Write the structure tokens for this entry.
Amino acid sequence: MAEARERLSAREQLLLNKFQSEKNRRCEEAFVRLFSEKNTLRLFFVNDDAAHTDGQNIILDPAYGFIFCDKKCLQETQKFLGWEDTLSSAPWNALKMVTRGLALHECLHILYTDFPGREFKDADFFTSGGQSHHNERLTVSHISNIIEDAYIEAVAATIYPNIAGYLLFITVAHPLSHRLSQSTAERKLQNIAPAEKTATLIDYLEYVTSFLLYPMFEPPPLTAEIAKYVKKTKDLFLRASMLPSPAERYNYAKEIFKIIKPLIPEDSDELLEEKLFSRSLLGKNASGANNFPMSCAVRYGQAQEVKQPIWALLEGQEAEKLARWRKIISQEFQSDLDNLNGLWGKKKVIWHAASAYDTAPIHRGIKIKETCPAINMNMRAAYNNVYERYHLSINTYNTRFLQLLKAKVTVRERHFLFGAGLRSQDFGDVKKRWWYRDIPGVDIPDLAVLLLIDGSGSMQGARRKSAMESAVILHEVLKKQKIQHAIVEHRAAFDRPEVDINILLDFSARDEQKYNLMLLDAANNTRDALALFWAERYISQKTFCEHKLIIVLSDGEPCHDYDNYVPPMSVKDTAGAVKKISARGTDIIAVALDNTDEYDTYEDLREIYPSLVACSDLFRLTGQLLKIISRKLTI
């Protein structure tokens, strides 16, 4: 399958990668948990053209048989099922159909099949010393699996007709796959020459698989060597596939096994290979009952009466219902794709000229590159790790903030004859209700916070780590308190007239965007004045809060090597920017990150920021940031 997978086009591979993303995997996992009513069930994607379950986990390949990218196969499948063209022109829908079909097949095994298979506990297949009769056990496993596959599809037709379309699709599409025929699997089989007795056994199993699971296709040739065995066992397979309990079905499998036993080679003559055996059959290679870890707990399948095989749904009104069902779920699939596109889209980049801001002439020719990185779902585990380490602190800060809001937030009531103050806008009231009064209340604070983090190379190491962890805690606390906030990293390129602004968390961010906080980095220089002018405009454009606060996190004076923008010039220029922005109504408070018991950075930044907080203990950084916001809320 590796060679076939290499022949995927770049577009097909990108779509497959998107489908196998963690977010979509969790979506499909939630689907199988809901259907199986088993909240601990796990689902994992693999790339080995297989689908199986051990009763606790479902393992499947969304690119199974390369159906999703085989347009001819999809067209033939749609024609056979009487569906409109919603798959061959939409590979994403095809991926969904394949995945759901395989996943539901395995869910039905989990519900109605024994785990492990009864042949693993049957004393008839083990010697007195505990060693198994390998070939016999493997053969009865395949017989049992063929019967189980047919039975669970009959269950779908009888009990779950709304999901039977998924199973019908995968059952029809797989044998029609043209891309599969180009894979390495078929060529490998052609190069393997099993012993004559093994080849006869495989021919027999291929034939019974075909007539039981794929009656719409022409069966393999009925050779003289297998004809009498097919005649004796055909009805047994049909009856077994409609029996309600796993025990009854297994008894029929053993009865069939006894009839075909002359076809099974002795262990001493030749050991049958599981891989060759599976690949030689037309079945799904989704042997639910036989794929299990030896430590797996024993699970017994439910007994369920069935009334009809799955093929009965292709006739009359049932076929019309399936066609209508297909239209509905195609819309659901498209919605899932639209949601993922937002997560996998390219990063958004906007360029600004420094001349567009109220800057000093020294910044002429400098450009601001504003970047909103694409959400990186691979950072989810790292983010959750930080959250788990600090969740107690987050809960503590949330409690403190809640008490603060209850005590300090006020609600203004108007139109009183007496009160705390006059409101000039109400002077036109003929009843002279000019007065207002403030009463205690609980409300969302009218405050927007932008955390502007120094991304220069000197932040590398402990400072970067502390800033990143503080950003996570700050986000979780402010989100809980419904305070608008954004977290932004800034730096200036050494050798280019460019200031880079990375919006790690936007004011209106999706929940998944928080994972980008793990991308906080340290490199190059800083040009703080331009970053502050950008931050002022950004917070004004993106929020409508009465109070706006920029918190600057820095470990030194601004310096940009490109045009020798260094102290004392850079210090005076940035101080002028802070003064202008503050006068226009946006508060700026800086936090100076110093080494332990040293205040060199504090002394340097004191010339720039009138409101400055010293932080020489990085463990206290989060508390100091939240204290700044708390004070702002009490104003």
Remarks:
- Residues 181-192, 282-295 have pLDDT under 50 and may be disordered.
